[in-house]
Design a protein that fits this description.
By secondary structure, the protein is an alpha/beta fold. It has helices spanning 92-95, 110-119, 136-148, 163-171, 185-192, 197-209, 228-241, 267-279, and strands at 2-3, 7-9, 15-17, 25-26, 37-40, 43-46, 54-59, 73-78, 124-127, 152-157, 175-179, 213-220, 248-252, 285-288, 298-299, 306-311, 314-317.
Length: 337
């Protein structure tokens, strides 16, 4: 537990958090809507600092990050809380706990995390499982420790930050996969309890103001955000604002959370979305949560040679070397290899 960043005091020992666009006004003794920040007598505390509740070693492809050290392991951890309230959330017990959980006997320091990653043989650490925006201080401190020991730091996030917090956070990340859930503000309001504009601003800021490697994921939910018109708008926006070399992952929805009555995403919808993305100029489009022939393969944008084969979360380089260049034509494939 540490004093939080990104807040200022108000009258009567209340505080206002400035970490995300909710900008919660929190009375003394109160808790933020994201759960992770508590007002202790007029001082905002990042309560989940040092208290991971989910830890696992994953393949980097699970994040998903396909153009960042493919085939490597990543030491993954998450805490409690989220600043979104997605009705289709698959980690609700972590993101919206009813009460604080008991933690470790002592805080898990950033140096402890680095040592655990090194013991696991993982060259990087991921802030994932729950929304890392709500434990940004801890994630940034871990990133500093990683960089001091030659490890990388990545994040899997919905991108719902205030501008200053987002700049600070992504400046310390080596790679990030950011959810772009819809191109409709009404979708974000009704199904996620947030707004679209701050997410778009975060995505553009990452691309324009940081060196963080960026990939984007969109979960296609039948009847809600999977129309041809919206997919066309989303893929055109990514191509125009983030660049045609930005990897875009379309993920299949499976009934979960409060949306058990919504059917799974048909394979044909994902294939159509990939075709639309390619027509709009995107060069690296992937399909996840479903088995589609070549849905995870990476191809050379210049000559069409297959560079990386993927089967589930397993990746094998078949047409490129460690320098990221195609063996057939010599073209460099954008990424961190």
């Amino acid at each position: 537990m540490k004093v939080a960043r990104y807040w200022h005091p108000l009258e009567d020992d209340a505080v206002q958090c400035e970490l995300c666009p909710h900008r919660c006004r929190i009375p003394s003794g109160g808790r933020s809507r994201c759960f992770g920040r508590v007002n202790h007598g007029g001082q905002l505390v990042a309560e989940t600092w040092g208290w991971p509740v989910a830890v696992q070693v994953d393949p980097i492809e699970k994040k998903p990050l396909y153009h960042f050290l493919p085939g490597r392991w990543v030491f993954s951890l998450g805490t409690l809380g989220c600043n979104l309230s997605c009705r289709f959330c698959q980690n609700w017990s972590l993101s919206h706990p009813e009460k604080p959980r008991g933690g470790a006997p002592a805080p898990v320091s950033p140096e402890d995390v680095v040592q655990a990653a090194q013991r696991a043989g993982a060259p990087m650490v991921a802030a994932t499982y729950n929304e890392p925006a709500v434990w940004a201080e801890y994630a940034m401190d871990i990133a500093d420790a990683c960089h001091a020991h030659g490890l990388k730091m990545v994040a899997v996030t919905s991108g719902y930050f205030t501008p200053q917090a987002g700049r600070d956070f992504f400046a310390k990340m080596d790679a990030a996969n950011v959810d772009l859930k819809s191109m409709r503000d009404e979708f974000y309001r009704e199904y996620c309890g947030t707004r679209l504009a701050p997410v778009l601003d975060t995505l553009k800021m990452i691309r324009q103001e940081t060196t963080c490697w960026l990939e984007v994921t969109t979960l296609l939910i039948p009847g809600l955000n999977d129309s041809a018109a919206e997919v066309d708008e989303l893929t055109a926006w990514v191509a125009t604002n983030l660049g045609v070399d930005t990897p875009l992952h379309f993920s299949a929805f499976h009934p979960d959370g409060q949306m058990l009555d919504v059917p799974a995403t048909p394979k044909a919808v994902l294939v159509r979305a990939r075709e639309q993305a390619r027509r709009n100029g995107l060069r690296h489009v992937y399909l996840g949560n479903i088995r589609v022939p070549d849905g995870g393969a990476t191809w050379c944008a210049n000559c069409g040679a297959e560079l990386i084969q993927r089967d589930g979360f397993q990746a094998q380089r078949v047409g490129m070397g460690a320098d990221g260049r195609c063996w057939a034509c010599g073209e460099a494939c954008p990424g961190v290899w």
